[in-house]
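Supplementary notes for students who missed Thursday's class. We covered one full example, reproduced here. Read the sequence, then the structure, then the short commentary at the end.
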Amino acid sequence: MIRIVLSDEQIEAISGIEEPIDFVDSQGRKVGRMAPSHSDTTHPFKPSQEDLAQVKQRIAESKASGCSFTTWNEIKSRLQSQEGA
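Structure (token representation):
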């Protein structure tokens, strides 16, 4: 596990925040997201429109490349066909 130590100023800036926090680099590119440990875990945060678009893009790319599996039965079938080859 990687551990990043935040400064007192950074801790103060995010203390009390109840919603997920996006972390960005100096160019504004998203590098991660954190849900505060004190947030309500019974209602996980909703993914952003950006997150949903990225997931949809990855699914489309996977299907286009022919490497898409949607159910355990499809994975199992593919593995069994490869074992017989």
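Commentary. DSSP finds three helices and two strands in the chain. The longest strand covers residues 30-34. If anything here is unclear, bring it to office hours.
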